[in-house]
Amino acid sequence: MARNPHPELTQERIIKAANELFKRQGYDKTSMQDIINATGGLSKGAVYHHYQSKEDLFDAVANRLMNTVSETTSKVHARSKQGTALRQLQSLFSPERARKRLEAADLMFREFNPKANPKMIGMEFTALVDERDDFVDLIKQGNQDGSMHVDHVEQTAEIFRLLANMWLLPFFRRGTQAELRTRVACFFSILQGLGIPLEDQGFSDLLSSFGTDAKGGGKEKTEGEWSI
């Protein structure tokens, strides 16, 4: 058998097929044979050579999805060090920096149904809580430079990551433009109450453009229409 000179391309092909199936019909309703059929010509042996089980393939897909959503807040220390800790955090919510991330996430999660993917939601929850250290350090820095006044640093870091990556964004739970604006207002109010005085400097305008009733977004769907 000839050796595959580009195994990464084969893996990408498999992950792409699995990603579309998991989003559309859910993990439990997708079989390995479904994925093999969706690769457009790869043999069963070729798929199993790279991924021994559906669970292994799911982990690869889930990691990619989580990286897309979490990159907004996962590596604070790799970003700009200018200004106070609050200013560094505020920059993450500037429309200029957030737009491309939101557009990429919207493209990937457009057909995502959270009720059909509870395992993926659980993995995202666990990863966000486990990877809180960057924000723990940033909040401590904010307490030291006086830009933040947080009493419970570790818990606040967890709350921030969970709200910012799962609740605030309209991909796990859709909403109208008005609902997304209200969600942003609540998010900033919660953080201010915890001692992080972030301000809405145009982020609500950006997020509302992803609302279900936004221009070009099609007919607004009810909660029942989004569920399986």
Characterise the protein shown here.
The longest helix has 19 residues, at 7-25. This protein has 12 helices and no strands. Helix content is 61%, strand content 0%. It is mostly helical and 228 residues long. Helix 1 (7-25) crosses helix 4 (54-70), helix 7 (118-130) packs antiparallel against helix 9 and helix 8 crosses helix 9 (153-167).
Helices and strands in order:
Elements: H1 7-25, H2 32-38, H3 44-50, H4 54-70, H5 85-91, H6 95-109, H7 118-130, H8 133-145, H9 153-167, H10 177-193, H11 203-208, H12 223-226
What are the secondary-structure elements, in order, as H or E? HHHHHHHHHHHH
SS-based class: mainly alpha
- Which residues form runs of ≥5 with pLDDT under 50? 217-228
Report on the biggest sheet. none
Give the tags.
228 residues, mainly alpha, elongated, disordered C terminus
Summarize the structure.
With 228 residues, this protein is mostly helical.
